[in-house]
Structures are given as C-alpha cells and as structure tokens.
Specification:
- It is a single chain.
- This protein has helices at about 5-15, 35-40, 45-50, 140-170, 180-185, 205-215, and strands at about 20-30, 55-60, 65-75, 80-90, 95-100, 105-115, 120-130, 170-175, 195, 200-205, 215-220, 225-230, 235-240, 255, 260, 265-270, 270-275, 280-285, 290-295, 295-300.
- The chain is an alpha+beta fold.
- The protein has 2 domains: about 5-180, START domain (Alpha-D-Glucose-1,6-Bisphosphate, Chain A, domain 4), CATH 3.30.530; about 195-300, 3-layer Sandwich (Rieske Iron-sulfur Protein).
- Strand 4 (about 80-90) and strand 5 form a beta hairpin.
- FE2/S2 (inorganic) cluster binds near residues 188, 242, 244, 245 and 261.
Length: about 300
C-alpha cells in the first residue's frame, strides 16, 4: 500500500497555498506500547466509550487502515458535526489520522515509544492547515482540539491502565501480528486474554462457604481468575474480567441479569447460577470449564 508521511501530505497542501500551525501533546503511562497501539486502532470502543462522539460509522475497515464518518460533538459550541476520518498505520507505532473540518484540514500523528516493557510514551502531533483569513482562527481550533484530546484521554487511558495492571499480574493479550489490525479489533466474540504459564488457571471453592459467608469476590483479587457474586433470587457467579480484551467487570455492568462489557458491549451469562436452595440452575462454559461435585466448585480457565 502506498502511504504518505505527514510531511509529504503537508508539503503537497502547501503547494496549493495552505498554511499550517503545529503543536504536540504527550501521555505517559504504565502499560505496554501495544496497549496504546490497540487503543488507537480499536474500532468498537469508539461508540461505547467516547462521550464526545455520538456515532462512529465504520465505512471501510482494513488491516492497517480504516475510514469512518464520525458524528463529533464540537467543544465550546455544543453542536454535533459529521467528520470524515481516515486512519492508517504508517509504520510500527506510527499512526496517521486525517480529517477535514470546514475550511480546515487536521492531521494527527500518533507515535508510540516503549520506555520499557510496561511503560510507554505516546506523542500526538497535530497539524492544522487552512488558507487565507481562516488562519485567524488557528488558536481557537487548537483550543478545541486540546479540549477534545483531554476528554478522549480521560476515557482512553483507564482502558490502557487496566491492561497494564493485568500485564503486571501475569496476563497477556493474544494478537496475530506484530501490531494491532483495525479488522482484528472488531471480532469482539474472541477471547484474547491469556495467562502466563506460571499462573494457576483453576479455582476450587466450597459452595457451602459461599452460601454462608456471601463474599462479593472469590478467587484472585483481580484478573481472569477473579469472580464476583450477586445474591438475588438466584446466586450467580460472574467473571470479573472480560476475556475479549480485559475490561474490568462488576455488578455495575449488569443489565437485566446479563453482564454487559463497558468497552465493546459483549454480553455474558453467569458462569454458574444456583437457586437459593443451592440447586444448580445453569452453567456457561464459553470461557471456563466448570464442574460441581457435592460441595466443591471447580472453575478452570480455558486459554
Ligand atoms: S473487552 Fe471487548 S467486549 Fe469486553
Ligand atoms: Fe479511544
């Protein structure tokens, strides 16, 4: 695929009389460079996680490039405008976004630098281009973009942080390539969370103890071997981590006895459901193998 660098795009536009202004912002965090790469390419979270984007309509999603129409809330002026957005990976950890906004062309270049295995710095460089009198509004457009950036980061960084915490706790994430593909992120029914070899993948727990002590969390404190329990008409055991890409799940994610993941909207049944007398109502073995022998409940992570 033939691709242009930001400088090549800018110099082509300058040949037609466009003038530019540039600025950059950085975010440093305790997560892998791949978590930042994933977050920028993750198509389905845009609709679920970002409050500034009313709708994100994927038009064409490829391996290393994607094209959207976003209905974007514009900061300060409280209106929603359609923005056509083109995104492509120029090279590993170097992603370019291009959008036009009235008489302005906005180019955003995101570069990810791995400081070490679990820390990374993401630099986002904005270039705004326009012609003639519209240059007078450069500082206003810059203010809008900065406000939008801080809102986006307040919603994106917790996703990366969660994955950073899981990595620290011996989890990792399957990906089929050296970097993420836009296409791959749309397969939300995949289970990409994995546990390192040294981690125990099974939990054995007494049913009687659960009924007597009513704990909220069983198993590990967090991660894929941690579970939360709800005590209503039935006693339901739920996963505390989404097996797709690692979102933290809790009773706040329950809607009508279904667990709905806040990142991409995948929904889950309880892993095990008992009635109030301790009789098994159902079990769901999509993520774990589940066996119940008298008092002993065994939950084994499949991946
Ligand atoms: S992390 Fe993707 S659906 Fe939960
Ligand atoms: Fe995002």
């Amino acid at each position: 695929m033939k691709k242009l660098t930001v400088n090549q795009i800018v110099s082509k536009l300058e040949q037609f009389g466009f003038k530019k202004t540039k600025f950059e912002v950085k975010t440093v965090g305790k997560y892998s460079g791949l978590d930042s790469d994933w977050n920028y390419k993750d198509v389905p979270h845009v609709h679920n996680v970002h409050s500034q984007i009313d709708q994100s309509i994927p038009i064409s999603i490829g391996d290393k490039s994607a094209f959207f129409v976003n209905l974007q809330k514009i900061p300060f002026v409280s209106i929603t405008l359609p923005l056509t957005v083109t995104i492509y990976e120029y090279s590993r950890f170097n992603i370019i976004y291009l959008a036009s906004f009235g008489p302005y062309i906005i180019i955003i270049n995101t570069k990810i630098l791995e400081l070490d295995e679990n820390n990374c710095e993401t630099t986002t460089e904005y270039t705004i281009l326009t012609k003639g009198l519209f240059k007078l509004f450069f500082s206003f457009i810059k203010k809008m973009l900065l406000k939008n950036y801080s809102k986006l980061m307040s919603e994106d960084v917790p996703m990366r942080d969660q994955r950073g915490r899981l990595r620290e706790n011996d989890h990792f994430f399957f990906l089929p390539d050296e970097t993420y593909s836009f296409d791959f992120t749309t397969e939300i029914s995949r289970n990409n969370v994995r546990l390192n070899e040294n981690k125990n993948k099974s939990l054995s727990i007494s049913k009687n103890k659960i009924f007597k002590n009513k704990p909220y969390i069983i198993g590990e404190k967090n991660g894929i071997m941690s579970f939360f329990i709800t005590y209503d008409e039935n006693i339901n055991i739920w996963p505390k981590t989404c097996p797709h890409e690692g979102a933290n799940l809790s009773k706040d994610c329950l809607k009508k006895n279904k667990l709905s993941c806040p990142w991409h909207g995948r929904s889950f049944n309880p892993i095990i459901s008992f009635d109030s007398f301790g009789n098994l109502i159902s079990k769901d073995e999509k993520i774990y193998n589940v066996s119940i022998n008298n008092d002993d409940i065994q939950i084994v992570f499949k991946n």
